[in-house]
Each structure stands twice: as structure tokens, then as C-alpha cells.
Amino acid sequence: MKKMILFSVYYFIIHQVVAQQTFTDVTNAMGISVSGSPAYGQAAAFCDIDNDGDLDIAFSHEQGATFHLYRNDGNIFTEITSSSGLSGISVSSILWAEITGDEYSDLITVSHIYRNNGDNTFNNITSGSGISGECRSVADFNNDGYADILSLGTNTKIYYNNGAGVFLNSTVLTGSSICSAVCLDYNNDNNIDIYLGNNGGDQNILYRNNGDGTFTDVTQSAGITCSQYTSSVSAGDYNNDGYLDLYLGIHLGQLSQPTNILFKNNGNGTFTNATTTAGVVGKPSTRTTSFVDYNSDGWLDLFVDDHYKGNKLYKNNGDGTFTDVAPAMNITGGFGDYFGTSWGDYNNDGAMDLFAVGHFYIYKLYENTNCPNSYLTLRLHGTVTNHNAIGVKVKLYAGSLNLTRYISVGDGMNDCHGLPVHFGLGLTNTVDSVEIFWKSAVQKLYNVSANQILDIVEGDPLGLRETMNENINSIQVKPNPTFRELVISFKNNTESLFVVEVFDMYGKKMISDELFNSPSNQVKMNCSAFPSGIYILNI
User: Fold this and answer.
1) Which residues, at least 6 apart from 510, have a Cβ–Cβ distance to it below 8 Å?
2) Which residues pair with 143 in a beta bridge?
């Protein structure tokens, strides 16, 4: 196996008073240019396409060949649409999911699949994939570890992945006039169910996954009926009871009465309409909706966009009610509406940022600044489970907080959010435990420090691969513990490059694959920015 050495770091942290939380438009400052773009933005999706640890962004417009891909280079975004081989494609929806059996997220548009080659280029592999219709969501419906695709259209179909991006079989679900969908495990039986929204010509449908390849319409018995134009469907556990609730965005005329619906999951297979009590009726012509913990207090909030009348950001008060804080957070959106949104932490500061596209030249990156609370972010990497960990449930316990999150792809109207799992922790500094429900087993972490991003590999929380470097031996690390500088001495039988990695005890890589060519057989590393703790040196 690799040579690993434990060492400690002592460091003093000083807490500072921060300014008022707000959302700041940083689109131009971050290098995202929208000049000359068509007036109607359509879809948006955060994703780490190159596995470098930060979220890149893709978005599209309604008209013609209007797809854009921007790589996150840390302090700026760089457009790579042309060099990636994706220029000239027409896209009305964007999904990111690893479906071809490697470790890179592939691009799934409304009717095409583009394989991520791992070098910032993509190949169209639609032909022979077996996919047709309108790709809307990604989930593992048959629990084989592979990411399957839910497709809408004349028929609603589930396409089952063989693990290599070929979809050999499908399940056809009844239901017409379907325009929105969300995949969720509403009854906590570890099978992914489906809720479908209609365009006003039929009924919404809740399909229970029976776990044997069949689905049962349980809409009536679950008490979750709706026949209005449901432009958007989102799922999240807003009351922290461990069961996923549903929020429906209803699109009517601008002079109509608001009729959005919050269905509270009762935990017994039924739902209760809690809209009025919660105070989240929304506006009359909702476009898209999403659950997000924007202030990291541990309670999922609601973001709601309207065709004519701007946005609402409903702050979860933690008592079953919500308060609209969009004006105070500078995120009303003004004139125009959002067809597609994506929430994700693009700058890795622990706060959820927003990218939104829509009518009247809206292409906006909003940075969430001065978030007042603690957080824990998990980047999950499946091995038996699909690489993106799509469908995995994660539970977190921290004092009085009992939080449940699911990794899902595709909800809202044309929304695809960043995959890292974000937990807001309020003022909590330590997480008692985390449970990750992989396909292979339940993985547990204990006494985890807040305010960090952890990379967790299924079955291997440190994510280390067992490979021997025969050229490195007689390793010494001094001083240990260290305050600032760590000196690593060793015998190197060659002068070739080698890899030095430092992990904390929860799998977070503190130094990323630094390469040293050191014939002097000594390497010095600056650890002064590390929090106090025990670390693993991996050579």
C-alpha cells in the first residue's frame, strides 16, 4: 500500500464579525459574458466537469444553437464551449451525470448524450444509446448502482443504464401532457419514486416504485392530486422529519390568484397541503422552484420565480412557516423571469450561490456573500454506487439538528443543481455523526468539524488508492507536531517526479497532488493555514 504518516498541526483561529448577508451579481466580474446572447435564457446547470474540486457552469437559450460551457478556473470563468466540442448544439434542458462507467460527469440534453472524455472535451454518443424522448431527470430506479434516465414526451419512460451509457430496457408509465418531474424516495423504502407534473390538460401523478421493476399510481391514496399547470416540481425535507416534501409551482395568468402548493409528507405514505399555514402560496405564474438552505441554518428554504412578478426567497423559520426575504437578500430579479436555475457553491466558501437564466437577457451569477452560519459540504464519490452518488441519502446529526438530504439530478422547470451535498449547521461547530447510505453499505463519520468540504469515497473515507511507490523509503517527518513548516526527508532511488498528498482525518485533500523533483531528498511544506488536527501524509 502507499506510505502514510500521521502528523499534527497546531493553529489558532480568530473569529471575525461579518457584514450583512446578501446576493451579489458577479456575472461580469467572473468572466461570464452575455453580450449578444438571445433574449430568452432556458436552462442552467452547475457541475464539476474536470474533477478539480470547483463547480463549472453550463447554460442555454431558447433559440437555436445556444449552448455555453464555462470552466471554473478559481478566480475567473473561462468559456470552453468551442474547444470542448459542444458549440452549435441546441439545448432546452441540461443534466449532468456520470453514465458511461468512468469518473467524469457526462452531459445529457433534452435528446442527446455527450460523453465527457476527461480532458475538457465531449463526444456525441446518442446514436446507439437507446435514448429517445425528452430527458428530464436522472436516478437509479432499479438499485443496480447505475444512473438511469427519466424521459418525458408522448410516453413517459425510464431508460435503464447498463453502466456503459447504453440503455437496453425501458419501463413505460401512463400519463399525458407531462411537463415537469422530480425523482424522490417519498416513503423511505430505498426505492426511487417519481412525481410528474402536467401542463393543465390532465392530472399530476405520484408513482410508487415497487422495487421489482413496476410502478403503482398512488396519487389518490397519497392525497397529492393536482390538475393545474405544474411548471415546476421540487422535493426537500423542509421540516427536518426525515421525509421528503413536495413543492409545486403552478403557472396561471398574471391576473390569477397564486396557487402554488406545498405538500407536507406525513411519513405514512400520505401528504397534507400545508401551503397556507406555511405562507408559501407564491405568485400566479410560477416558472421554477427549488429547495435550498441559503443561510446555512439547517432548514431548507424555498426559491420561487414568477413569469411576471419577480422572485420570492422564502426563509424557513424552523416552525413550519416561511418569510419572504428576497428584497432584503437582493434577489428579487427585477423585470423578467427565470426558466432555469442552478444552486451550487462555485467558490467553495460554504454558501450556496445561484446561477439563473431567463427572459429579457437574464444570465446571472449571484454570489452568496457573508453567510452567517456554519456548514459541512460532502463531495461523494461512488464505487459500487454510480460515481456521482445519485440517489444516495445522507443523514447528519448535530445537537438538535437531524438533517436528511438526497442527491438528485433534474427538478424544478429546467434546473440541475450542483452535486456536492450541502448541510447548513447554524452556529454548530461540530457534527456528531454523518450517515451515508451507499448501495454497498452505510458509511459513518463521527465528530466531524464544521466549515469544511470533505471528499468521501464509498467504502473508503480517505479515498486513498493502494499502490506502491518502490522508489521512496526511509521517510522522516519533522517537526511533528508542527506549527508552520513540515520537513519531509526520505531516500529517493530516482530523480523522477512523485506525488505528495495531505489529507485530514475525514478525507479532505488539503494539498492537491503536488509534484516534487527533489534529488536533495528533502521537501518542505507550509502547513500554517491548516486548522489544528491530525493529518495523513500520503506519498
Assistant:
1) 502, 503, 504, 530, 535
2) none
CA dihedral 380, 382, 388, 389 (to 10 degrees): -80
Q: How far apart are the C-alpha atoms of 57 and 77, rounded to whole Å?
A: 9
User: What's the CA gap between 390 and 288, in Å, rounded?
Assistant: 22
Instruction: Give the C-alpha separation, 353 to 351, whole Å.
Output: 6
Q: What DSSP assignment string belongs to 30-64? A: TT---TT--SBEEEEEEE-TT-SSS-EEEEEESSS
d(CA 261, CA 119): 43
Of 100, 11, 21, 39, nearest to 330 by C-alpha is 21
The pLDDT tens digits for 348-370 are 999 999 998 877 667 889 999 99
What is the distance between the alpha carbons of residues 146 and 163, in angstroms, rounded to a whole number? 6
Query: What would the grid cell of residue 487 be?
Result: 520537513
Sorted by sequence, the CB contacts under 8 Å of residue 327 that are 6+ apart come out as: none
Query: What is the rounded CA–CA span in Å between residue 291 and residue 42?
Result: 19
Q: With bands split at pLDDT 50, 70 and 90, how would you rate the model's confidence at 479?
A: confident
| Bridge partners, residue 338, by sequence | 358
Tell me how far apart the alpha carbons of residues 198 and 179 are, in angstroms, rounded to a whole number: 5
- State what percent of residues in the chain have pLDDT above 90: 65
| pLDDT exceeds cutoff 70 at 221 | yes
Provide mean pLDDT across the span 469-498. 68
The helix/strand/coil state of 219 is: helix
Task: Return d(Cα 417, Cα 395) in angstroms, integer.
Answer: 19
Among 448, 435, 338, CA closest to 380: 435
Q: Which amino acid is at 64?
A: G
pTM value is 0.84
Instruction: For strands 374-381 and 452-457, give the pairing.
Output: parallel
Residue 534: strand, helix, or coil = strand
Report residue 6: phi and psi, to 5°: -85, 135
pLDDT digits (tens, 9 = 90+) for 26-40: 999 999 987 655 557
Residue 466, pLDDT above cutoff 50: no
H-helix segments, 274-333: 275-278
H helices of 245-326, in order, are: 275-278
Cβ atoms of 221 and 228 within 8 Å: the answer is no
The yes-or-no verdict on residue 12 having pLDDT over 70 is no
DSSP per-residue codes, 281-323:
---TBEEEEEEE-TT-SSS-EEEEEETTTEEEEEEE-SSS-EE
Which residues neighbour 193 within 8 Å (Cβ) at sequence distance 6 or greater? 183, 184, 185, 186, 187, 206, 207, 208, 209, 215
Task: Give the pLDDT confidence of 127-164 residue by residue, as tens digits.
Answer: 999 998 889 999 999 999 999 999 997 789 999 999 99
Residue 140, Cα to own-chain centre: how many angstroms? 16
Nearest C-alpha neighbor of 148 from the set 403, 364, 385: 385
The verdict on whether omega for the bond into residue 481 sits within 30 degrees of 0, i.e. cis, is yes
